[in-house]
């Protein structure tokens, strides 16, 4: 692991984006789900991915932190190729431990929360900082409480996930992702599994994160959130980027008929 | 809606079927509780049957009761009990570690590990335990010497007479452990498969390595599914130790047969042995409660009661309206 070097992405320019995807392709059993996705996210930006279900948004998101291995193209985060390392002048596919190390810088929030049910809210947050990073327990707990406070759940540190509402669970999940101090946060439909009245709390936390300058890629169906918080909106359909740009243009004045049709059906 | 005066229980109202009249409100129905006469009939019939069997056993002239009380705390029997317990605990502990290893191998993407684990389970689960015990016990007939060295060369690190290296106790322990590992591996595998795929993804997304994920995220959750059948296996193991009598390991059953071959009190000694097995299996279920409670933490369903709580429940059969709902606040 010590001789692992960052693979400088040759396509990255001097003014490089934090996340850069070039012609990313991915197939599942002969079905091409991603047909060459290219996009850039600059540090501090919020990008919302919109599109009908099956358009490949979630798959693309999972490729960014190598939960799915891409079949073609390249993804780099902070100028470092995802899933590949250079040793002795050659590029090697990373083993699982190296991938795990790389993922520390990329947080992810899931549709179904995926909290660890046998741990309290606080333990969910501190497990990785203590076990993966070797942070001393008291420091990790202090930081965990601070993060819980930040997502508005300071008094629920000792609750188990089953004792929390969906909205509370998702906010704990956001705090868990933040605990590793990621430079990039991925959200996979974070409010789709929530009761309507709980969506607002989660979106508020996400807006606060965006305002704090967190770089975020958000797969969502919340058009209102995309309009208010996103710097760029990307509309995907059938594995390609159909249209992208600032929310005012893509959401309020879409050029592509597929985008128009989707927005009409959602709003 | 028919205009029955049904009380609608508010959030703080007691349930409508609360048998305690003090908890009843003025507008609740004052009804005669449902009676269960057949429960009484069946209970009486069963009690009569049990009493009949007990009396017939007690009055059976072929059973010499003083012999039972003479041997139940006999020194040799107690030594047998200790050995049986040691065999059970050691073989269960070691086989569980092996089982986790086998289950992880079986679920890994490595085809060699996968095949090896499959082969192991196939061989040890597919042949009778009794035969495995005999093979280990009489390994000296197969290999007079056991040598550790490099295959197909003369180099040897160590060589020893098989019967010295593996006495009957070790052979028995090996047989029970290796056989149990094959069964337990499938239980552990089932437990690991019961853990949601999203748990792995969540663990990986915060940078946990596969090994860390296994021990901190997957196995603790799998334990909830693993422990009840493992309790079963432990009880089976306790009784399967009696099979070691075929290779003359001096556990409880072997000791009893040795005594009865001298005093010809076979039935009495079998009663003695059965009493001990019953006692030991009853004792084994106590740690199971606590393990289940420990690994059930965070689960929405209420935890299983402790043995004390169970006794308490029997003594106080009227349940209070419990509020063990783990609904979201």
TrEMBL record, chain A:
<keyword id="KW-0029">Amino-acid transport</keyword>
<comment type="similarity">
    <text>Belongs to the ABC transporter superfamily.</text>
</comment>
<dbReference type="InterPro" id="IPR003439">
    <property type="entry name" value="ABC_transporter-like_ATP-bd"/>
</dbReference>
<protein>
    <recommendedName>
        <fullName>ABC-type polar-amino-acid transporter</fullName>
        <ecNumber>7.4.2.1</ecNumber>
    </recommendedName>
</protein>
<dbReference type="InterPro" id="IPR050086">
    <property type="entry name" value="MetN_ABC_transporter-like"/>
</dbReference>
<feature type="domain" description="ABC transporter">
    <location>
        <begin position="19"/>
        <end position="263"/>
    </location>
</feature>
<keyword id="KW-0067">ATP-binding</keyword>
<keyword id="KW-0547">Nucleotide-binding</keyword>
<dbReference type="Pfam" id="PF00005">
    <property type="entry name" value="ABC_tran"/>
</dbReference>
<dbReference type="GO" id="GO:0005524">
    <property type="term" value="F:ATP binding"/>
</dbReference>
<dbReference type="InterPro" id="IPR027417">
    <property type="entry name" value="P-loop_NTPase"/>
</dbReference>
<dbReference type="InterPro" id="IPR003593">
    <property type="entry name" value="AAA+_ATPase"/>
</dbReference>
<dbReference type="GO" id="GO:0015426">
    <property type="term" value="F:ATPase-coupled polar amino acid-transporter activity"/>
</dbReference>
<keyword id="KW-1003">Cell membrane</keyword>
<keyword id="KW-0472">Membrane</keyword>
<dbReference type="InterPro" id="IPR017871">
    <property type="entry name" value="ABC_transporter-like_CS"/>
</dbReference>
<keyword id="KW-0813">Transport</keyword>
<dbReference type="InterPro" id="IPR030679">
    <property type="entry name" value="ABC_ATPase_HisP-typ"/>
</dbReference>
<dbReference type="GO" id="GO:0016887">
    <property type="term" value="F:ATP hydrolysis activity"/>
</dbReference>
<dbReference type="GO" id="GO:0005886">
    <property type="term" value="C:plasma membrane"/>
</dbReference>
From TrEMBL, chain B:
<feature type="transmembrane region" description="Helical">
    <location>
        <begin position="80"/>
        <end position="107"/>
    </location>
</feature>
<keyword id="KW-0472">Membrane</keyword>
<feature type="transmembrane region" description="Helical">
    <location>
        <begin position="40"/>
        <end position="59"/>
    </location>
</feature>
<dbReference type="InterPro" id="IPR000515">
    <property type="entry name" value="MetI-like"/>
</dbReference>
<dbReference type="InterPro" id="IPR043429">
    <property type="entry name" value="ArtM/GltK/GlnP/TcyL/YhdX-like"/>
</dbReference>
<feature type="transmembrane region" description="Helical">
    <location>
        <begin position="271"/>
        <end position="291"/>
    </location>
</feature>
<keyword id="KW-0029">Amino-acid transport</keyword>
<dbReference type="GO" id="GO:0043190">
    <property type="term" value="C:ATP-binding cassette (ABC) transporter complex"/>
</dbReference>
<keyword id="KW-0813">Transport</keyword>
<keyword id="KW-1133">Transmembrane helix</keyword>
<dbReference type="GO" id="GO:0006865">
    <property type="term" value="P:amino acid transport"/>
</dbReference>
<dbReference type="InterPro" id="IPR035906">
    <property type="entry name" value="MetI-like_sf"/>
</dbReference>
<feature type="transmembrane region" description="Helical">
    <location>
        <begin position="240"/>
        <end position="259"/>
    </location>
</feature>
<dbReference type="GO" id="GO:0022857">
    <property type="term" value="F:transmembrane transporter activity"/>
</dbReference>
<feature type="region of interest" description="Disordered">
    <location>
        <begin position="1"/>
        <end position="24"/>
    </location>
</feature>
<dbReference type="Pfam" id="PF00528">
    <property type="entry name" value="BPD_transp_1"/>
</dbReference>
<feature type="transmembrane region" description="Helical">
    <location>
        <begin position="119"/>
        <end position="144"/>
    </location>
</feature>
<protein>
    <submittedName>
        <fullName>Amino acid ABC transporter permease</fullName>
    </submittedName>
</protein>
<comment type="similarity">
    <text>Belongs to the binding-protein-dependent transport system permease family.</text>
</comment>
<keyword id="KW-0812">Transmembrane</keyword>
<keyword id="KW-1003">Cell membrane</keyword>
<feature type="domain" description="ABC transmembrane type-1">
    <location>
        <begin position="81"/>
        <end position="288"/>
    </location>
</feature>
């Amino acid at each position: 692991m010590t001789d692992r070097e960052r693979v400088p992405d040759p396509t990255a320019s001097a003014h490089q984006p934090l996340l850069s995807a070039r012609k990313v392709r991915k197939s599942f059993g002969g079905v091409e789900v991603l047909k060459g996705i290219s996009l850039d996210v600059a540090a501090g930006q919020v990008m919302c991915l919109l599109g009908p279900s099956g358009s490949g948004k979630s798959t693309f998101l999972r490729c960014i932190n190598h939960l799915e291995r891409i079949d073609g193209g390249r993804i780099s985060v902070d100028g470092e190729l995802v899933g590949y390392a250079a040793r002795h002048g050659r590029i090697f596919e990373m083993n699982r431990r190296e991938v795990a190390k790389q993922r520390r810088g990329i947080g992810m929030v899931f549709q179904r929360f995926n909290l660890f049910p046998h741990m309290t809210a606080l333990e969910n947050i501190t497990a990785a900082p203590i076990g993966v990073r070797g942070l001393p327990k008291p420091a990790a707990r202090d930081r965990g409480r601070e993060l819980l406070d930040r997502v508005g759940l300071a008094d629920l540190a000792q609750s188990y996930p089953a004792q929390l509402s969906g909205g509370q669970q998702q906010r704990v999940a956001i705090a868990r992702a933040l605990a590793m101090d990621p430079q990039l946060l991925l959200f996979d439909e974070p409010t789709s599994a929530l009761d309507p009245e709980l969506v607002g709390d989660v979106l508020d936390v996400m807006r606060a994160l965006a305002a704090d300058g967190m770089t975020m890629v958000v797969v969502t169906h919340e058009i209102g959130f995309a309009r208010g918080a996103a710097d760029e909106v990307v509309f995907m359909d059938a594995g390609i980027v159909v249209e992208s740009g600032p929310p005012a243009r893509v959401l309020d004045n879409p050029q592509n008929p597929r985008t128009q049709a989707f927005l009409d059906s959602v709003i | 809606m028919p205009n029955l005066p049904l009380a609608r229980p508010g959030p703080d109202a007691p349930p409508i079927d609360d048998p305690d009249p003090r908890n009843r409100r003025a507008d609740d129905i004052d009804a005669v509780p449902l009676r269960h006469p057949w429960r009484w009939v069946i209970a009486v019939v069963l009690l009569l049957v049990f009493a009949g069997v007990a009396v017939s056993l007690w009055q059976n002239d072929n059973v010499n009761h003083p012999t039972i009380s003479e041997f139940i705390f006999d020194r040799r029997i107690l030594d047998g009990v200790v050995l049986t317990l040691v065999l059970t605990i050691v073989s269960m502990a070691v086989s569980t570690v092996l089982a986790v290893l086998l289950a992880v191998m079986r679920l890994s993407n490595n085809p060699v590990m996968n095949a090896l684990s499959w082969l192991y389970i196939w061989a040890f689960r597919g042949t009778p335990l009794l035969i495995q015990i005999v093979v280990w016990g009489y390994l000296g007939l197969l290999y007079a010497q056991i040598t550790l060295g490099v295959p197909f060369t003369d180099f040897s690190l160590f060589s020893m007479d098989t019967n010295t290296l593996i006495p009957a106790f070790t052979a028995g322990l090996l047989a029970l452990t290796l056989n149990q590992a094959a069964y337990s591996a499938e239980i552990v595998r089932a437990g690991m498969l019961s853990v949601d795929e999203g748990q792995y993804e969540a663990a990986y997304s915060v940078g946990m390595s596969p090994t860390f994920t296994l021990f901190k995220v997957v196995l603790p959750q799998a334990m909830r599914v693993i422990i009840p059948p493992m309790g079963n296996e432990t009880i089976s193991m306790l009784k399967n130790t009696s099979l070691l009598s075929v290779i003359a390991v001096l556990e409880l059953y072997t000791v009893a047969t040795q005594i009865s071959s001298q005093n010809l009190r076979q039935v009495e000694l079998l009663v003695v042995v059965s009493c001990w097995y019953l006692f030991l299996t009853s004792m084994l279920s106590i740690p199971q409660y606590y393990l289940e409670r420990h690994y059930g933490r965070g689960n929405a369903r209420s935890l299983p009661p402790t043995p004390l709580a169970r006794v308490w429940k029997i003594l106080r059969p009227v349940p209070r309206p419990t509020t063990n709902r783990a609904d979201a606040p």
